[in-house]
Design brief:
Number of strands: 6
Distance between the termini: 37 Å
Radius of gyration: 15 Å
Mean pLDDT: 96
Largest sheet: 2 strands, antiparallel
Shape: globular
Structural class: alpha+beta
Helix content: 25-40%
Number of domains: 1
Low-confidence stretches: none
Order of helices and strands: HEEHEEHEEHH
Number of helices: 5
């Protein structure tokens, strides 16, 4: 039996407006179902409480795995990864001029871009097509 109830899963989806809370990909535009991610991984003491859960696309969730911090490429110091429950996306990230890449604005944002590979070749290619279709960037 899953440790997270269907009710909690639905509440997490609604709170995230059916978007990955890391890369902002909409459920309508990705092939797989968006997944529930433990912001603080269970193996590092995280819980199944709603405040520790967010919605993530498969790519972001796979790259994040059990990471909670990574190296900020600008300062070369370890920084905590973005926490969608405690931080605002727009304060840590911005879209590139062509809206295909996520730019880290803070140490946290830059470390998250690196750790989750938010600008991997597949993501950039897909975003380019979403821009052409008028589906991106999200508002």
């Amino acid at each position: 039996m899953p440790s997270i109830s269907d009710t909690v899963r639905q509440q997490v989806r609604q709170r995230a407006e059916n978007r990955c809370e890391y890369c902002l990909s909409a459920q309508d535009y990705v092939m797989g179902k968006l997944q529930i991610d433990h912001i603080q991984p269970k193996v590092k003491g995280g819980s199944d409480e709603r405040e520790n859960l967010c919605l993530a696309c498969e790519l972001c969730n796979q790259h994040k795995w059990t990471k909670t911090e990574d190296l900020d490429p600008q300062t070369r110091e370890i920084a905590s990864l973005f926490n969608p429950r405690q931080q605002n996306w727009q304060e840590h990230f911005a879209w590139s001029e062509d809206a295909t890449q996520i730019m880290g604005l803070t140490a946290c944002g830059r470390a998250t871009v690196i750790a989750l590979k938010l600008n991997n070749a597949l993501a950039v290619m897909v975003r380019r097509n979403w821009v052409r279709a008028g589906w991106h960037p999200p508002t």
